[in-house]
Amino acid sequence: MATSTVPAAAEPQAPETERQETPVMVRQLRWEATGVVSVLLARPDGGQLPAWQPGAHVDLLLPNGIVRQYSLCGSPDDLSGYRLAVRRQPASRGGSEYVHSFLRPGQPLRIRGPRNHFRFEPADSYLFIAGGIGITPILPMVRQAAAAGARWSLVYGGRSASAMAFRTELAPHRDAVRLYPGDESGRIPLTALLERTRPDSAVYACGPEPLLDAVTDAAAHLPQGTVRMERFRPRTRESTCNTDVQVVCARSGRTVDVPAERSVLDALADAGLPVAGSCREGVCGTCETRVLEGVPDHRDDILSEDDREKGDRMYLCVSRARTPRLVLDV
Ligand SMILES: Cc1cc2nc3c(=O)[nH]c(=O)nc-3n(C[C@H](O)[C@H](O)[C@H](O)COP(=O)(O)OP(=O)(O)OC[C@H]3O[C@@H](n4cnc5c(N)ncnc54)[C@H](O)[C@@H]3O)c2cc1C
């Protein structure tokens, strides 16, 4: 039987905890690499922040009204602060741009969460694959695997060495870490790596869409569930045709007709039902809702194939229905 020294992931937090807002202040801002700053957040009263596990992220509620998700990349053992790292996006509509241009130490902010859809589970060995800022959720996993004495390796690619954050933190693990700065070493040799990956390993990957698509292709021979990914942006998809759906909200005893041009989330929110959303792109998980009857048409980038087949939960911001009626736990 497979044994592992990595502790089992804690049970998922209750949705109420995930949606809870916590006041924080910026304790420190640090330049980590070209275009990347880290932000240390702490409670203004010096108290402890909610517990989290590797793979978790928080919603950062910025003073300009924008809400963005950022992975926790510090240590889950130190709840006196949360560390995030933010890459400046050139065409930013205000999330990363605000963090880079306006955030200041001492500034009060609010966060929501933590929330975790990229859970680090026990396995015989691990292959971690990170591209660019996708290193953030991977870093705490690497530290946990190393601390537990597990077998692991990390391949980490970026445009250039100077744009790759946390290289110094990874230096003590140089035997297990291979860096691929694109301008020096080219691309991560995913096909060769994944061919050598044993079926009882777990592969955790986070990075830009082309990297994750290449991982999916190169891992096609591995058993379903071996590769777990987190996407910071929704996958590019062909547009899908929407149809009307009737949503029965079992807990509230209300029925809402959702027209084809409205999302289920917006229609339920407009009807005054207790639902919450954040990214509205099917990547953050804030609007996760239990499905009691009916078959969801999953259009998110969070659920694994296994979870999709189960069909017991859905993300209301993007997903719809394959049946004319859905009964939800709302
Ligand atoms: C679960 C989760 C965890 C995340 N963790 C982090 C993190 O640790 N660090 C971090 O910097 N970001 C992270 N993100 C992304 C982050 O939430 C924002 O989307 C990002 O900061 C861009 O916001 P913006 O308002 O600056 O840009 P937007 O206005 O949202 O986007 C500007 C342009 O850049 C493109 N774009 C945005 N993000 C990316 C990207 N990652 N790669 C390529 N193109 C992109 C958009 O498509 C758009 O064209 C995470 C997202 C999710 C869902």
UniProtKB/TrEMBL annotation:
CDD domains cross-referenced by the UniProt entry: fer2, PDR_like
SUPFAM superfamilies in the record: 2Fe-2S ferredoxin-like, Ferredoxin reductase-like, C-terminal NADP-linked domain, Riboflavin synthase domain-like
GO MF entries: 2 iron, 2 sulfur cluster binding; metal ion binding; oxidoreductase activity
PROSITE patterns on file: 2FE2S_FER_1, 2FE2S_FER_2, FAD_FR
Cofactor: FAD
Region Disordered: start-end pairs: 1-21
Keyword list, A-Z: 2Fe-2S, Flavoprotein, Iron, Iron-sulfur, Metal-binding, Oxidoreductase
Domain of life: Bacteria
Domain (FAD-binding FR-type): residue spans on this chain: 19-121
Every 2Fe-2S ferredoxin-type domain range: 243-330
Name recorded for this polypeptide: Putative oxidoreductase
Source organism (scientific name): Streptomyces angustmyceticus
